[in-house]
Write a structure and sequence with these properties.
Blueprint: H1 3-23, H2 28-45, H3 48-70, H4 76-86, H5 94-117, H6 136-148
Helix pairs in contact: 1-2, 1-6, 2-4, 3-4, 4-6, 5-6
Length: 150
């Protein structure tokens, strides 16, 4: 991947993590920008067949993410953010991305539990009383690790 494209995608992922930590949401414009940079990366650094694999990865990620959203397991922004990042990764990197994101999500949840046990009045709650987990942090971490650890 060309350095400026890698830098842009990593910066957008980091911005998503910060945004989700601060405001507990991932705006559509941020997801769109990450998707556009990811698509540009795929087109400029790979052949069109490989870029098609990236697109398949992103579509599968979006479908699974929207099912998880419908089940109330994740937010819609998380599904779109993950899919936008997936567009920048070949289909062959789908499992490492999922693995790193899951590991980062586990660390995030353990930190949140630890803070809660230490007396922190952690996090906003949704209309059903559930604590909002800034999973964009885990997605961004998974994306960073997938891009940088080969």
């Amino acid at each position: 991947m060309q350095p400026y494209l890698l830098g842009a995608s990593l910066a957008l992922a980091a911005a998503g993590a910060v945004w989700d930590l601060r405001w507990k949401r991932l705006p559509n414009i941020l997801c769109l920008l990450l998707a556009l940079v990811s698509l540009a990366t795929a087109i400029l650094t790979e052949d069109l067949t490989a870029a098609g694999g990236n697109a398949i990865h992103a579509v599968i990620a979006l479908i699974v993410g929207m099912v998880l959203f419908r089940l109330g397991m994740i937010g819609a922004g998380d599904a779109k953010f993950y899919s936008a990042a997936a567009l920048g990764l070949p289909l062959g990197r789908a499992l490492p991305f999922l693995g790193w994101t899951s590991a980062a999500g586990l660390v995030l949840l353990l930190v949140m539990i630890g803070l809660r046990m230490a007396g922190s009045n952690l996090g906003q709650r949704d209309d059903k009383g559930r604590v909002l987990v800034p999973y964009g942090v885990a997605i961004a971490s998974g994306f960073w690790l997938t891009q940088l650890v080969k």
